[in-house]
């Protein structure tokens, strides 16, 4: 546990002292505010579903960029050689990296709260829906991050991790799109394929249909990808 | 302390990179590992430091079998790889007061006491190497593994780092790899030559007459 906390803290402080992470989060908020408020005053509805859609799109680019160097950079610089000669296991390392970066992503989501407060100030939104949407976003981001961590573990170059994760998330997003699912003749198969789309679960949560099933889906996704990352690190020995 | 490697074999897929490595080390001294590129030096060092496991064979400490991935074993090892990236000595399981005490001790021993407040980026290669050495000494490991510790240093820095290694070997077993034969002769008490994954020579340095000739004969 001590090792997980130490790695997570190191990762978190790495973001705090790096000016790029502030530029990154500022850019994220700027783009999401701009895209959200562009339609907000036209539609004139006090709801945040459009914000979650914008954030989902931005996360699919920003999170691979955040996660790409998490492991690949350690491999490239050779520091993983020193790291795994220290008394730390692959599981502790992966969990530390995951939670440290998740804290940064959580910080970005929290920084989006003025957008939500503006919606609350201008109208009378359903706070339950907003809470569900925010929770869905958080789980979605954590699942993207776990996928990104795995992508980063497959390469020695951060750009390799970025390309893998972006393509993977694009494909995952694609299988949840109506235009794709509607072309599948069997509804059962369409449901089955659509079930694996991360976005569909967060969309359900943001429209007030929060179910334990969706939360369990995200938790399982995160656990599976963290296990895959640990296995990928252990493969160095084979 | 007795440190033995018994019939170590290592495969990466189908390819065998280490073959029946038997090494018996005893006491505090400097042991040099020599070999051409691709002979298996780095793989062997990575096994000893716990980065890789073995495919076959055993590591014994004081005649007891140990798992090189085990945390207790790793606490006994200090490792300085060739490119010397700095990483968390806090992971060695030391308390904060012990960390402060050991930073003071090893920074003085390694001659970097007056540079503690400086950023690593502005230090010369020689001083960075000393910082790496000090970091690998955190936790006071019994076995120190140094992968080409003088690589890229200027002659003055080489002499200083060699002196430091000799000093450390008074209380530790130091295993170092090097390409430089005069260096091996100058600082190692015992030499191991590795070629194509096998140990082809294991002798006290003083008992080797013409190291250069022997090296070429055994590795060509």
Automatic annotation (TrEMBL), chain A:
GO CC annotation: plasma membrane
Membrane topology term: Multi-pass membrane protein
Major subcellular site: membrane
Superkingdom of origin: Bacteria
Keywords (A to Z) from UniProt: Cell membrane, Membrane, Transmembrane, Transmembrane helix
Transmembrane domains' residue ranges: 12-37, 49-72, 93-121, 127-146, 158-175, 215-233
UniProt-annotated location(s): Cell membrane
An MF annotation (GO) of this entry: ABC-type transporter activity
Family annotation (PANTHER family): MEMBRANE COMPONENT OF ABC TRANSPORTER YHHJ-RELATED (PTHR30294), MULTIDRUG ABC TRANSPORTER PERMEASE YBHS-RELATED (PTHR30294:SF29)
Name recorded for this polypeptide: ABC-2 type transporter
Automatic annotation (TrEMBL), chain B:
All residue ranges annotated as the ABC transporter domain in the record: 3-218
CDD domains associated with the record: ABC_DR_subfamily_A (cd03230)
Molecular functions (GO terms): ATP binding; ATP hydrolysis activity
Keywords in alphabetical order: ATP-binding, Nucleotide-binding, Transport
Annotated Gene3D superfamilies: P-loop containing nucleotide triphosphate hydrolases
Family: Belongs to the ABC transporter superfamily.
SUPFAM superfamilies, sorted: P-loop containing nucleoside triphosphate hydrolases
Keyword 4Fe-4S: no
Species this protein is from: Candidatus Shapirobacteria bacterium GW2011_GWE1_38_92
Xref: PROSITE patterns: ABC_TRANSPORTER_2
Protein name as annotated: Gliding motility-associated ABC transporter ATP-binding subunit GldA
Keyword Nucleotide-binding appears in the UniProt entry: yes
């Amino acid at each position: 546990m001590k090792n997980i906390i130490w790695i997570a803290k190191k990762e978190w402080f790495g973001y705090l002292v790096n000016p790029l992470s502030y530029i990154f989060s500022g850019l994220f908020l700027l783009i999401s505010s701009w895209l959200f408020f562009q339609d907000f005053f036209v539609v004139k509805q006090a709801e945040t579903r459009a914000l979650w859609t914008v954030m989902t799109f931005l996360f699919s680019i920003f999170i691979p960029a955040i996660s790409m160097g998490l492991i690949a950079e350690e491999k490239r610089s050779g520091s993983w050689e020193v790291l795994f000669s220290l008394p730390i296991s692959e599981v502790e390392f992966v969990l530390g990296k995951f939670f440290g970066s998740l804290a940064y992503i959580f910080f970005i989501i929290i920084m989006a709260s003025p957008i939500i407060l503006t919606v609350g100030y201008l109208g009378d939104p359903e706070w339950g829906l907003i809470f569900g949407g925010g929770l869905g976003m958080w789980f979605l981001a954590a699942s993207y991050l776990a996928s990104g961590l795995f992508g980063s573990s497959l390469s020695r170059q951060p750009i390799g991790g970025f390309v893998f994760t972006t393509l993977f998330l694009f494909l995952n997003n694609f299988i949840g799109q109506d235009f794709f699912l509607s072309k599948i003749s069997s509804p059962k198969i369409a449901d089955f394929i659509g079930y694996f789309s991360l976005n569909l679960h967060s969309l359900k949560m943001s429209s007030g249909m929060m179910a334990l099933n969706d939360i369990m889906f995200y938790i399982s996704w995160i656990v599976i990808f963290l296990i895959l990352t640990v296995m990928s690190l252990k493969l160095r020995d084979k | 302390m007795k440190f033995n490697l018994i019939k170590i074999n290592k495969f990466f897929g189908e390819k065998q990179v280490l073959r029946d490595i038997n090494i018996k080390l005893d006491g505090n001294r400097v042991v040099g590992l020599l070999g051409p590129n691709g002979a298996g030096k780095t793989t062997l060092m990575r096994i000893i430091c716990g980065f890789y496991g073995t495919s076959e064979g055993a590591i014994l400490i004081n005649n007891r079998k140990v798992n090189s991935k085990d945390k207790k074993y790793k606490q006994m090892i200090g490792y300085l790889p060739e490119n010397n990236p700095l990483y968390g000595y806090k992971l060695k399981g030391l308390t904060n007061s012990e960390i402060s005490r050991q930073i003071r001790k090893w920074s003085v021993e390694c001659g970097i006491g007056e540079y503690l407040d400086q950023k690593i980026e502005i230090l010369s290669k020689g001083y960075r190497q000393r910082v790496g050495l000090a970091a690998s000494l955190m936790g006071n490991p019994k076995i120190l593994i140094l992968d080409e510790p003088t690589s890229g240093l200027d002659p003055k820095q080489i002499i200083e780092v060699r002196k430091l290694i000799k000093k450390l070997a008074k209380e530790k077993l130091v295993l170092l790899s090097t390409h430089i034969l005069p260096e091996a002769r100058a600082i190692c008490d015992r030499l191991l030559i590795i070629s194509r994954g096998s140990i082809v020579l294991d002798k006290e340095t003083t008992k080797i007459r013409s190291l250069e000739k022997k090296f070429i004969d055994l590795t060509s």
